[in-house]
């Protein structure tokens, strides 16, 4: 049975992940509005990834005999100044999520909860990948500056992203 402290912390993280999904869905709509369907696709895939992150914790909590308590999801930002502005905001958000995961690991250690400590290692690796993806796109956007041809080429590249659902366990 999972401790109350760990249960509360994991429920809070489910909310963080669902908010991430909501934020990226909002960014997908913004990209669609400004005519960048490839960028929009990238964000839709990100939305699916975040939903998966939330569900992985949801299922883990249930498997440990914990109670899932869903909380209100806050309203995400709707407008940005440019694609670069969006990806800078994305990176900042992911850095916040990395901190949340690190804090959860600290709690698991304090609670001597080895199972949760192990479970969270997957998220550590995932956060390294997420931040690296955002940094790579930021670098490209900084090189592109105001070159529309290069922006459309990147849009085509981002259109090919697909969601590969990892096995839920
Ligand atoms: Fe973007 O990694 Fe979950 O939130």
Summary tags:
single chain, 169 residues, mainly alpha, Ferritin, 75% helix, binds hydroxy diiron-OXO moiety
Provide structural commentary.
This protein has 169 residues and is an all-alpha fold. Helix content is 75%, strand content 0%. The radius of gyration is 17 Å and the shape is elongated. The chain has a single domain, classed as Ferritin (Up-down Bundle), CATH 1.20.1260.10. It contains 5 helices and no strands. The structure holds hydroxy diiron-OXO moiety (OFO). Hydroxy diiron-OXO moiety binds next to helix 1, helix 2, helix 3 and helix 4.
CATH superfamily: Ferritin, core subunit, four-helix bundle
Which bin fits the share of residues in helices?
Answer: over 70%
Shape: elongated
What's the Cα radius of gyration?
A: 17 Å
Helical segment count: 5
Counting helices, strands and paired strands, the structural category is mainly alpha
Largest sheet: none
CATH fold naming: Ferritin
N- to C-terminal distance = 18 Å
Instruction: Give the CATH architecture.
Output: Up-down Bundle
Order of helices and strands: HHHHH
Total domain modules: 1
Determine and state the CATH class: Mainly Alpha
Which strand-content bin applies to the residues?
Answer: under 5%
Low-confidence runs of at least 5 consecutive residues = none
- Small molecules (ligands, ions, cofactors) in the structure: hydroxy diiron-OXO moiety
Tell me the number of strands.
0
Mean pLDDT: 97
């Amino acid at each position: 049975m999972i401790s109350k402290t760990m249960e509360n912390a994991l429920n809070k993280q489910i909310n963080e992940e669902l908010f991430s999904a909501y934020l990226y869905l909002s960014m997908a709509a913004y990209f669609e509005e400004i005519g960048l369907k490839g960028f929009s696709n990238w964000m839709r895939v990100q939305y699916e990834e975040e939903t998966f992150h939330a569900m992985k914790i949801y299922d883990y909590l249930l498997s440990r005999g914990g109670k899932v308590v869903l909380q209100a999801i806050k309203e995400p930002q709707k407008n940005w100044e440019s694609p670069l502005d969006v990806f800078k905001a994305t990176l900042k958000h992911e850095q916040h999520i990395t901190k949340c995961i690190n804090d959860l690991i600290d709690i698991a250690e304090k609670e001597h909860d080895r199972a949760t400590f192990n479970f969270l290692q997957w998220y550590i690796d995932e956060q390294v990948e997420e931040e690296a993806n955002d940094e790579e796109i930021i670098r490209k956007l900084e090189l592109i500056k105001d070159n529309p041809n290069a922006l459309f080429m990147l849009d085509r590249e981002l259109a090919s992203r697909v969601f590969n659902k990892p096995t839920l366990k």
